[in-house]
Write a structure and sequence with these properties.
Length: 96
């Protein structure tokens, strides 16, 4: 439940992606190959995920939240294995 009420603005290479994500939601984004910097913009502690995208591949990213103190959260994006991602996506809804 940590961070369950937070809506995440996802930033990809310094460009905000719409729509915002909320608890148990996901979005799909097609991007060009190359180096990627992905993070949330929550005005808390937002950790940057840096990785390289290759043409023709699919990547799954998850965002976790940790609570450090009253209203102080750390949000971390990380790459997820396809099998685990598919199972987790079954519990989620597409963000609109």
């Amino acid at each position: 439940m940590t961070g369950a009420a937070v809506s995440y603005q996802v930033v990809l290479n310094n460009v905000r992606i719409s729509p915002k994500l909320s608890n148990q939601s996901y979005l799909v984004k097609e991007i060009d190959p190359g180096e990627i910097f992905l993070f949330t913009d929550t005005q808390n502690i937002d950790r940057v995920l840096k990785f390289t995208v290759e043409a023709g591949k699919t990547y799954f990213v998850s965002i976790s939240s940790k609570n450090y103190a009253a209203m102080v959260f750390e949000h971390t994006a990380y790459l997820v294995d396809k099998g685990l991602a598919i199972e987790e996506l079954k519990k989620c809804k597409l963000a609109l």
